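If your schedule permits, I should be very grateful for your opinion on a structural question. What I wish to show you is a protein chain and, alongside it, a tokenised description of its three-dimensional fold. Would you kindly read the sequence against the tokens and tell me how you understand this chain to fold? Here, with my thanks, is the record as I have it:

===
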Amino acid sequence: MQLLEGAAILLAGAAAGTINSVVGSGTLITFPTLLALGYPPVVANVSNTVGLVPGSFSGAWGYRRELAGQYGRLLRLGVASALGGLTGGALLLVLPDDVFDAVVPALIGLAVVLVIVQPWLSRRLSLSTGRHAHGGPILLVGIGLTGVYGGYFGAAQGVLLIAVMALALAEPLQRINAMKNVLAGLVNLVAALLFIAVAEVDWAVAGLIAAGSVVGGLLGARVGRRLPPAALRALIVVIGAVAVISLLA
């Protein structure tokens, strides 16, 4: 690996860690960078997933105040995320790459729409039915399915998680964002463990992304926690829209 190539991967990891901590979609920086440098798609995806795990948890640490009082809920949702991530990782190894090509942009586009209409829709849901303190079985299913997607590819996984949880939980957006960091980290972790066991990981690439993403995760938490809800929601929508356009292109 050349010095400039390593520097590019390190910087991409830092940028991805920052974006993942604030919203999600950091994979849209690291994955194309690795492809541009000539890494095979599956090796790039696997190494990227392994490398982003530490950044997910550094971002979660940066949001630890917003996680207070949510540990019981995270335990329930974390099981669904972990099972989904394991399933998605297995699908990556056995399915052809084009299986989700049509589905992924549609899912992210739907998540963006849900984030936009979430305040209105949440008010309607709370007035008509009330909401379970932990989101109920519907949220568990939604988190599990999002985990499947995250284990398979992961771009804009955070946007999907925020959309699903914002509809099901009567919580401020920042507290939902804090949970998103933990759940996305769990998905990446279980998928990474699977990849380490049975797939080819480029450890130099994974190490550089990990180093950058740890710093980026802490920086993103500092920035994200200061954003007002409207600004955070707008940022989620913009990044989700960019993800859809990038995947379609």
